[in-house]
Predict the 3D structure of the following.
Amino acid sequence: MKFGIVVFPGSNCDRDCFWATSNILGHPSEFIWHGDDRDLSSFDILILPGGFSYGDYLRPGAIAALSPLMERVRGFAGSGGLVLGICNGFHVLLEMGLLPGAMLPNRNLKFICRDVNIRVENASTPFTSKLAEGQVISLPIAHGLGNYYLDQQELKVLNREKRIVLRYCDEEGNIVDEANHNGSVENIAGVINPAGNVFGLMPHPERAMEALVGPQREDGRAFFASMLDVFKERGVLDAGKET
Amino acid sequence: MKGRAEVRVMLKDTVSDPQGETLQRSLVSKGYDVSRVRAGKFLQLELTGYSREDIVARLEEICSDILSNPVIEDYEYDLEEVLE
Amino acid sequence: MKGRAEVRVMLKDTVSDPQGETLQRSLVSKGYDVSRVRAGKFLQLELTGYSREDIVARLEEICSDILSNPVIEDYEYDLEEVLE
Amino acid sequence: MLEKKLKALGLTGGEYDTICSYLGREPNELEMALFGVMWSEHCSYKSSRDQLKKLPQDGPQVVQGPGENAGAVDIGDGYVAVLKIESHNHPSAIEPYQGAATGVGGIVRDIFTMGARPIAILNSLRFGSLEEKKTRQLFTRVVKGIGDYGNCIGVPTVGGEVFFSTSYRENPLVNAMCVGIARKDMLVRARAQRGESTVMVVGARTGRDGIQGASFASCELTQNSSDDRPAVQVGDPFMEKLLLEACLELREKDLVEGVQDLGAAGLTSAASEVASRSGLGMEIDVEKVPLRDENMSAMEIMLSESQERMLVIPREGCEVEVVETFLRWGLDAAVIGQTTEGSDLIVREGKTIKGQVPVDSLVDKAPRYTRSAQGTGKKQEQIKVAEPGDIGEVFRKILASPNLASKRWVYEQYDHMVGVNTVWGPGIGAALLRVPGTKRGLAMTTDGNGRYCFLDPYVGGIIAVMEAARNLVSMGARPLAVTDCLNFGSPEKPHIYWQFKEVLRGMALACQKLNTPIVSGNVSFYNETGGQAIFPTPVVGMIGLLEDINQHLVPGFQEENLAIILLGETFDEMGGSEYLAFIEGREEGKPPQVDIAREMAAQEAVMEAFELGMLENIQDLSEGGLALALAEMTFTAGMGAQVELTGKLPPHVQLFSESQSRFLLTCSEGNLKQVMDFLREKDIPTQHLGWSGGDSLRIKGVLDVPVKEMETIWTNAMANQLGY
Ligand SMILES: Nc1ncnc2c1ncn2[C@@H]1O[C@H](COP(=O)(O)OP(=O)(O)O)[C@@H](O)[C@H]1O
Ligand SMILES: [Mg+2]
């Protein structure tokens, strides 16, 4: 069970992701430099971390999407590997076209850093199987461009295929405009690809792994536990070691 | 040949524009009769190629692959030759 | 009269442009022969006034007070009439 | 002719004569410019150096005191905390967004220059009244500038303060502090170890921006300041992030002798200070400096303040590896010169020597002035404030005072969690971070009430330090060390210089008593416009240690039936209070006084009670007094309290007086007697005020306000003025 964490020059949640997968969960983890054109077959899960890959100049993720390693990532995803894009990593996946849609500036035009409520819309993905549909969890967000856009046509498709995985909600789980911190279409906070192995989300599960830091709850762990479950089922991972 | 291009990247008409809308509202609140604002990017590039066609071909690539995101944006450009 | 203005806001030449420089370097690393990039803003406005002169006067105000930061930026614009 | 030139460089005729005597000849233009910037107030501390020496700078915990890019103190387990604060007041007044952004960039460089990984940024802001549109715009841009820069480089902005007073209308203050962590045995100093060491510059290319910024920061802002200002620098946080990672990698691989960032006075200052610290000479060839603008003169290259550049001195034989490391991070490193066994700074343009001056004449032998100091002689009056008609109304009103209201509007624009070490971010007394790799916690805060200092600079200086310490104690942390930023008007005016000396005298005494040496800092003079100076404003950045991070307390009432205890004595001290300023529109009177012995006893008692595990909450009392402290404690969990004011003073005084050396403590009902006995035994005045619980704050016979209502007022006050 090995995590690969892709490092772009301006990534800044790469170390946090490493801390989560390696120090907290105890799984082998390795940084992968974006400029290396290397074979990824030794990895089981790839994480594209948050940050400001190229200062977010021009558009977040735009320049990173063209990094040499990204074609390898595309191949990894194409052959069914799990790819998780968090915040800026989500931007990169959007820019690569691995996930649909694009990001606009938050509707209040400000960077927003706070803990928010998220409703789980689809708990049958490899990233959310440890959660329950309709469950309300708490995760931090920290972004200036998280206003998710998708045209109506595609939105229909995503809804039909249950590919909207997370939505911003209020404490009771209602999808209301006041809880739509950045103005995303239909309060969308995370989406998945048709094959169900590439997942992007704006909130930061890696910041919600320990009660000591971040929100009091450790809701971020469920995402990692879900991914590890996939490998447990496949028999790759011995059952005692998942969290 | 060396060319100087001016690229304008605009949000598609169908995409809402939080920046433009905020600007429009604040202009109206300051008393200006502004009915619509759309915000985009403006980029000046100096680039070299074998010929004008060559430069245009590269510029098209640069604009569509990097400078704009086709999901939400359109672009247009002017190219003029730089005499050295 | 109703007018449509296209405003281009650019960093002054003496001011460094990290965004443009970063873009330039990454374009070069992708194999494009680009020697210089300057990044700016592009804005489209629809505004109404008594006359062309009136609109121009307001546009000047808007550009210098709101759309650009005169300490580091210059602006230019085109204005055309919108027939309704 | 000469006179005009000297004026442009900020040099006096007398200083010019000194330069001639140091050189044994007249300086050429370049040399004069070198002296101009190095002898500016900003670089030479010529008016403040003698005074700063009076601050306590030593202690067993000090690993690096003032004199390097940042101070460093031992935090155990083989680690040091590296800290420094700096002002970017003038640039932020001219171009708020970039000025504030580059301020953050500069202070963060000071930290990683030392080989420390930055783990936190704090920011201390002073602005005019938010009623004014101009202030709202400035403030909004400054906050965005700080946020965008820190967010991009991935260093959390975990705390700070904001204070509004018309005194800062024309001269806003923007101070930024950074804290980093390094292995004690891995600190990098800004010095070379031998002659003929290679000197490299790396990072952004050098342009015409910010030429003479140091001199600009050393004079008063005038109406024309927008015309003669240096070209504004645009921050490049992405470049900074690359530099940060590359420099830390060099340290990790032990490839460098010394690193120095390029800040005010650019290459001139970096080169001469490294040479001076190393006791060596240095040669710089300006032709080798990578340029952004064409046709730059030697002088422009030496004076440019282009941001995001570092001077790097590789270890012998490691030059190639250093360059390769930078290249991998996408950075160009250029060899621009070398150290020499001589004692001169030599500036070449290829083969031609453009200037040659003794290093010590630029640095150590820069002029020092003992300015004359003259107090106003005016004694501030004790203020009696009439009882308000409806104290509940007044209380609701003051909750919305921008100085007391929640700063959420500000800190939500800052990523305060990145790095996953933030145990408590902004929003409470002090920030608390886990020290990565240890079980300790590091608490940090900035404090300094300019209004108190204006009314009584000596007492204000003491309070600035003591309040910072109280904030740390409220996190269960023992104060460890201080970095300070001293923001004042023109030192050439006797009453300003008197303020400066008095504030310093107070700070020095407080730091000495607390055993919190000042290990780094910054002085910003000439914060005045049209002869009108700002309030004298020291900003104290203090860090403290919590031995076991898992022992940290949770702020605010989390449970019902906690006993609420007021520790310390409340006096009729409404002078200088926020009540007086906000409700009555007066910034005057005798500010609260401090009895240092009582203050120390109070802090020590709270620490001991905490360490004995008797307490549930610790909350310090500061601006807004008991009323605000109680209100803030109800917000975290939305839980109210019932209390009774048992003191003899009128209720509004008990609620809003800003008497010092006070805390609110809570403990379980079972522990109440024990806590009270413990404090009484130490002879500390203590009152049991009441209990937590319910959904309103009820002060018997005085007011009863629902928590929801208070919280709405308090939380939204800033956004209501500034827009959401
Ligand atoms: N500019 C700022 N940036 C970040 N946090 C801030 C800022 N101003 C205030 N805060 C936070 O708001 C809280 C209240 O600040 P303040 O009223 O100064 O606290 P105290 O009176 O306890 O020192 C603190 O946690 C502080 O860190
Ligand atoms: Mg304070």
